[in-house]
């Protein structure tokens, strides 16, 4: 369950409810509630608590899995099984601000998007203390469920009705793309890992335990609950972590993982855990679950990687001893843990953080390209999903809209062209040709999907600006998706700032191209204005100039003149 967003603590009495009212009033006046939404509320009892008096993460995982499964089955109309879980980052524990026992845990799950036979379920976990009215979020998570059978053989599509649902529907395709490339990124990073020789043998932390799957451990499909398996895995992982640090560890992150096969009543589930690597303030524990019946062969059920910290009395992370890996498999696990830590930091830095907490231009390298691309496309989709755009002016069938929220100005320029959507997508994707219709772009140097763009100065005697832009391109997954070209600034060591240009930055910009018919497309250009961009559009927004209309009239002309030309893009760009 991907906390591709960090859990945010909010504990102000009477100010917002983490389990907000799921009823919405649509523009038509219709009262709407998401038909796939399922809510669960549980009081934490002593039997649910761990040795620290806080809710056991294993128990929480069981509740989350059950809630998400019920949501998936409500949409599919048939039994569903847990296929995979994205990263879970626990920013705060259940007992973080108060005693865990008697705290109420609220879990909400709903289907964000359905694909052919799988669906993404979004899960929100929050807590409340009934005695103080204190409320806080614990984590946001995402799980993938597969329907075992449907009457039509294909899942019905999710139809988003609200702005939030539209945003989640759109970004779900990006999260799916990231899941499919996760293994490739690990492979690419392994060759760059350096081994550190520590003093503590990894074998000292090895744990093996067996569980007999009984009826209480099974779901209504007579298969072992995915949440129950995760709870058992968390238990042995905690023991392994304890053996390294000789203290009570705190689970911070569970990496993305996939269920390889089902387990059933009567299975003997063998759970193995070992500390793969220890860093300064954290350690990674690898856990494997295998099943067998009688004298049968072992079946691989699941593998997971969990990150633990050890907190001192001031709740600050303690320094941990280093691990000495055993030969062959131990060395491989040691190196893979370093690669996963790099990916974990990239995800947390690029995807999880609020935009105000990171610089506009994030350093780019091949190992974080997927996460930068995810952030790039998702930011554009979120901006495009907003419904409160205000029409500022209109001229020659080109409309200029503005949106101002939290002291951030965004603008949108929209027009229609008599060019097929796919051809418009290919033509606008090539920034090397943008100067043919946009005078603000002089030229671009291309390196795969990275462009250096130079623009003229808007005032006499000043310097021009240059931008290092990452261009992320996406074709639609289905008819409810547009073609997208997302742009954002990145930094490259090979392209430092120069004296001839002022280095500008773009936080979020790009094109959304909708197919209106076989020959007509609606093109929308979005930009979240930054100091580097404002000089070029301030007069247009204020109504003192109409240069943008001339630019998009040129864009329309450029597209129509080249509607029959061939534009070639690298498959990796799509």
UniProtKB/TrEMBL annotation:
GO molecular function: carboxylic ester hydrolase activity; lipid binding; long-chain fatty acyl-CoA hydrolase activity
Top EC class of this enzyme: hydrolase
Location of the START domain: 389-553
Domain HotDog ACOT-type: 34-151, 203-314
EC number: 3.1.2.2
Coiled-coil ranges (or none): none
Pathway in which the depicted protein is active: Lipid metabolism; fatty acid metabolism
Job description of the protein: Has an acyl-CoA thioesterase activity with a preference for the long chain fatty acyl-CoA thioesters hexadecanoyl-CoA/palmitoyl-CoA and tetradecanoyl-CoA/myristoyl-CoA which are the main substrates in the mitochondrial beta-oxidation pathway.
Protein name: Acyl-coenzyme A thioesterase 11
Organism: Hucho hucho (huchen)
Higher taxonomy: Eukaryota, Metazoa, Chordata, Craniata, Vertebrata
């Amino acid at each position: 369950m991907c906390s591709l967003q960090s859990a945010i603590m909010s504990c102000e009495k009477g100010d917002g409810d983490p389990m907000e009212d799921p009823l919405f009033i649509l523009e038509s006046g219709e009262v709407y509630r998401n038909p796939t939404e399922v809510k669960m509320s549980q009081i934490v009892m002593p039997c649910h608590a761990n040795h620290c008096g806080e809710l056991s993460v294993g128990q929480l995982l069981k509740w989350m899995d059950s809630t998400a499964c019920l949501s998936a089955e409500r949409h599919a109309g048939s039994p569903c099984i847990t296929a995979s879980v994205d990263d879970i980052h626990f920013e705060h524990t259940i007992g973080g601000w108060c005693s865990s026992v008697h705290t109420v845990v609220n879990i909400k799950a709903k289907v964000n998007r359905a694909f052919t036979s799988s669906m993404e379920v979004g899960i929100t976990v929050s807590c409340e203390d009934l005695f103080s009215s204190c409320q806080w979020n614990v984590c946001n998570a995402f799980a993938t469920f597969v329907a075992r059978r449907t009457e039509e053989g294909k899942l019905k599509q999710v139809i988003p009705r609200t702005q939030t649902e539209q945003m989640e529907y759109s970004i779900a395709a990006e999260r799916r793309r990231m899941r499919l490339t996760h293994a490739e990124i690990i492979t690419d990073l392994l060759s760059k890992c350096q081994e550190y020789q520590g003093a503590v043998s990894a074998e000292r932390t090895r744990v093996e335990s067996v569980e007999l799957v009984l009826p209480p451990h099974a779901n209504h499909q007579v298969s072992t609950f995915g949440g129950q398996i995760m709870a058992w895995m968390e238990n042995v992982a905690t023991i392994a972590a304890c053996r390294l640090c000789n203290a009570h560890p705190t689970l911070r992150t569970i990496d993305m993982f996939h269920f390889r096969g089902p387990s059933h009543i009567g299975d003997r589930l063998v759970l193995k855990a070992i500390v793969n690597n220890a860093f300064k303030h954290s350690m990674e524990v690898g856990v494997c679950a295998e099943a067998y019946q009688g004298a049968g062969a072992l079946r691989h059920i699941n593998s997971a990687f969990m990150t633990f910290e050890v907190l001192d009395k001031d709740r600050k992370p303690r320094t941990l001893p280093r691990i000495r890996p055993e030969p062959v498999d131990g060395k491989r696990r040691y190196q893979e843990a370093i690669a996963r830590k790099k990916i974990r930091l990239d995800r947390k830095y690029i995807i999880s953080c609020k935009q105000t907490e990171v610089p506009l231009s994030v350093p780019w390298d091949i190992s974080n390209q997927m996460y930068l691309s995810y952030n790039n496309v998702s930011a554009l989709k979120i901006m495009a999903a907003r419904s409160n755009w205000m029409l500022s002016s209109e001229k020659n069938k080109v409309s200029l809209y503005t949106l101002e929220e939290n002291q951030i100005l965004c603008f949108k320029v929209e027009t229609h062209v008599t060019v097929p959507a796919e051809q418009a997508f290919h033509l606008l994707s090539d920034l090397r040709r943008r100067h043919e219709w946009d005078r603000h772009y002089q030229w671009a140097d291309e390196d795969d999907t990275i462009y250096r763009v130079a623009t003229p100065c808007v005032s006499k005697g000043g310097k021009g600006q240059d931008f290092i832009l990452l261009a992320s391109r996406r074709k639609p997954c289905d008819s409810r998706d547009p073609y997208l070209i997302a742009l954002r600034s990145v930094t490259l060591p090979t392209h430092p700032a120069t004296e001839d240009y002022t280095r500008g930055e773009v936080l979020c910009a790009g094109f959304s191209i909708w197919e209106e018919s076989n020959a007509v497309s609606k093109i929308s250009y979005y930009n979240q204005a930054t100091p580097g961009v404002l000089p070029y559009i301030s007069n247009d927004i204020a109504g003192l100039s109409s240069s943008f209309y001339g630019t998009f009239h040129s864009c329309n002309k450029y597209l129509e003149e080249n509607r029959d030309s061939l534009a070639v893009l690298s498959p990796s760009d799509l």
